[in-house]
Amino acid sequence: MSDTTSVYQAYQGNTYLFGGNAPYVEEMYENYLANPGSVPDTWREYFDALQHVPAVDGSNARDVPHLPVINAFAERAKQGGTKVVVASADAEMGRKRTAVQQLIAAYRNVGQRWADLDPLKRTERPAIPELEPSFYGFTDADQETVFDTSNTFFGKDKMPLRELLNALHETYCGTIGAEYMYTTDQAQKRWWQQKLEGIRSKPQFNADRKRHILDRLTAAEGLERFLHTKYVGQKRFSLEGGESFIASMDELIQSAGAKGVQEIVIGMAHRGRLNVLVNSLGKMPKDLFAEFDHTAPEELPAGDVKYHQGFSSDVSTAGGPVHLSLAFNPSHLEIVNPVVEGSVRARMDRRDDPKGSQVLPVLVHGDSAFGGQGVNQETLALAQTRGYTTGGTVHIIINNQIGFTTSDPRDMRSTVYCTDIVKMVEAPVLHVNGDDPEAVVLATQLALEFRMEFRQDVVVDITCFRKLGHNEQDTPALTQPLMYKKIAQHPGTRKLYADKLAAQGMGATLGDDMVKAYRAAMDAGKHTIDPVLTNFKSKYAVDWSPFLGKKWTDAGDTAIPLTEWKRLAEKLTTIPDSVAPHQLVKKVYDDRAAMGRGEVNVDWGMGESMAFASLVASGYPVRLSGEDSGRGTFTHRHAVIHDQNREKWDTGTYVPLQNVAENQAPFVVIDSILSEEAVLGFEYGYAGSDPNTLVIWEAQFGDFANGAQVVIDQFIASGEVKWGRANGLTLMLPHGYEGQGPEHSSARLERFMQLAADANMQIVQPTTASQIFHVLRRQMVRDLRKPLVIMTPKSLLRNKDATSPLSEFTKGSFQTVIPEQNDAIDKKADKVKRVIACSGKVYYDLVKKRTENEVTDVAIIRVEQLYPFPHKAFAAALKKYPNATDIVWCQDEPQNQGAWFFIQHNIHENMLDGQKLGYSGRAASASPAVGYSHLHQEQQKALVEGAFAKLKGFVLTK
Fold it and tell me: Residues in domain Transketolase-like pyrimidine-binding (predicted)?
């Protein structure tokens, strides 16, 4: 068939060409006849194609052959409009041919609504008239009429209507229900049509393959039943009712390996996790039993429950060894998903694998959580963006049809399917009946093929059931009595499939023999998959041992030689003549060039940029992301220079930090999507897979970290003590009280202080350009990988008092405490009566007040590292003033926020006998800051004055 005829027939299948839209098409056609160039390209191609399609009545080929459009012409003719040629009686056959195309389109679009997906047979088939032949005017007399289906339905060029209907039903209404027609990519739609319609969605597996599927079902069921009888009542989040999931995982791993994938990173919540550990990743059953028996070694400060544990192994596939990693996951269900994506991206970058050919992300979801947890939408939104794409994710849903604890569909979600959220990225979905394990394996196979072909997300939705309650201590019949009556009568997927194979002549005892063999393996505590490679070591594996067990007190060698500083500064501040920067940006870079030469002090932006430049020049990659990180929210960074004469992103930008040295490490800066939770989770996952890259997430305003609190609480703060997972992620959180209201003042410092324990993270609030330079370099050059939380400033970005001389970059290191900087006061240290301790911007307000009032008996100490608290450095700074009777902690934040409640006992520990500790700051408040400028100024003035006034209120005496 010719290409022009194909174009014509493709348009025939679109329902928007018919009915009420026919006058629009007729008008478009009139415009085409007058001037072909006046209509869009797609319509011009369509009308061009009509030139080569015979009219249904043998009249002029330029007449529109679609009956609805002909009728529209005729109606206009009656009203005195365009003169038209009306089709003869042969138009009826044309109408039927058109109806066939509509029928095929209907099955492709909504056929899955009639699919046989429910193992419990509880789902009623909805009324969908478009799937009935009668909807299109077909009768029994048309059943044997032969229609041309070439290039419209794969399989045969001609079929009688009866055969076509059977083919459509088998393909789209069997145990696989496919959704893909919403994609705008025609190649993808044709791919699915060819794959599904060519085989009628029916797998063709040989006897060995079927035996292997039964083996995997036996392993899945066998482990659950073994645990159920041996560890009665213990939580394990059983997979019973969803055993086909293990067959799906097996297919995914083996087929991925055969296609060249070398690493698979898996994220999943609780259900079936223990089963995956043993039956997919090859964890020794005896090691799992030890965790149930409470005899496993306890090596971590806190630890976690067994169904949160991660694991890694190497398994053999037809394509070679594949490294499997199951991510550690807290109880917050889907929160692991962006973490997995970040880990995958780090592995891709390490392998120089930009398309994800060697690394595959696999995310396993529960039905209710997938549609209910907002982090999924955020993670999906990252899927095709440049800084976060992982080449497509295979999603598998263990769909229990119960919505966590409710079985009423009205309370589960607002969409038809739990998978409907993936339509936002046009990811195809294969719904599949869990009681048809061969269909599950086929769906998994097709999903992987699609991902590898198109590098996009794809979903396998395994509709199954949950034999037990949400956990093994629940009684689900309390709330779902009818559902659980059905479940009680269900023989189990393994039994159904074993009986099916026996009926096919594959052995009456095959199923029972496998059950006995698996039980014997369980009793012996042996591997249940073969082979697990115990001695394989990939060249891409990361050795974390150099970073473990190190002390935070090591400052690291963070200064750089003067010659290196000047060399890097010149490279950093040189903009090619071919790039035309904005005049404001040009001034910034001219000023930085002077800073690089030592002519003026270095400001915050230059200090930060030079830290990045020195790191990438030394071989440490830098990855910085956030909602405006290229420019910087407060326009201080300008890491990306936009050519004012070009707008194309690929040629219209210049990144100086990518051009500071030959063979330098990568510098990547990403303006992220408007997401905190998923992006921060992604960066945590990236940092957790690459200790040699400085990974930074920057909040546009510090309080935006609120949107990512789950990641902070359950990963960043506690990941090491729960799971032993070191991580060097850096958070930059703009923090400063400049009268910008409640949401633009505080980065919620108090929350990080509350989470600080077990030396789990570093919390700093640097106040000079040299301090940000040294703390960023320290994060990489010393052999310690702990999360670093930086309270970065806003007003200090341009405050000349916060600049630093060049000498502070070529010597020294990050100062956890900055003692009094006024030599006149230090020379008379014995005269000092009060010491004010503070952190952050308020220091400059205090110095200004002291200068204005000519105060000479008050010293000011800056605590730059709030946690781990630098006792030695703070004590040394305080001891310089033995006659000081008052110690005051001054902060911008309200009393119940900021560092006060955490810092007071640390200060008290280092005070001398007889000294008193007081507080000066805003009063306790339910809001981080006021929204009225005048009130802010009044409060700021009062807290600064209070730092010098007589102690009042709460006073702590040593």
Answer: 602-799
